[in-house]
Amino acid sequence: MKINVLKKNEHELKIEVIGADHGICNLLQKKILLDENVDLAGYDVPHPLASNPVIYVRMKGNFKPEDTLLVAAKKAIADNEEFSKAFKKALKD
């Protein structure tokens, strides 16, 4: 996976995620939107056969979108680990 920063300023971040699909982008969007300081967050796949997803985050106030995106990614990882543990336990029961 590779990330290209398309736009970055103090309130907005727009990145292209090369090698990702709807699954990871949708998960990140959901986690980003949990932050009450987010004004807008979403993603787009401009063309399903020829483009990579683009994630966009716009913040309220003096909050940095890159910090919010990193927190969202960490929450997604934690949720994945929690699911994995619960699934392994369920298989043993």
Give your account of this protein's structure.
With 93 residues, this protein is of the alpha+beta class. The chain has a single domain (2-92), classed as Gyrase A, domain 2, CATH 3.30.1360. 42% of the residues lie in helices and 29% in strands. It contains two helices and four strands. The chain has helices at residues 22-32, 65-92; strands at residues 2-8, 12-18, 38-44, 54-59. It has a four-stranded antiparallel beta sheet with strand order 1-2-4-3, with helices on one face. Strand 1 (2-8) and strand 2 form a beta hairpin. Helix 1 crosses helix 2 (65-92). It is flat, with a radius of gyration of 15 Å.
Summarize the structure.
The protein is α+β, with helices and mostly antiparallel strands and 93 residues long. The chain contains two helices and four strands, in the order E-E-H-E-E-H. A hairpin with a 3-residue loop joins strand 1 and strand 2.
Q: Major β-sheet, in short? A: 4 strands, antiparallel
**CATH-assigned homologous superfamily:** RNA polymerase, RBP11-like subunit
Question: Please, what is the average pLDDT?
Answer: 94
Low-pLDDT segments, ≥5 res: none
Please tell me what the overall shape is. flat
Structural class: alpha+beta
What is the total tally of β strands? 4
CATH topology: Gyrase A, domain 2
- The run of helices and strands is EEHEEH
Q: Trace the largest sheet across and list its strands.
A: 1-2-4-3
CATH architecture: 2-Layer Sandwich
User: Considering DSSP H and I runs of 4 or more, what fraction of the residues is helical?
Assistant: 40-55%
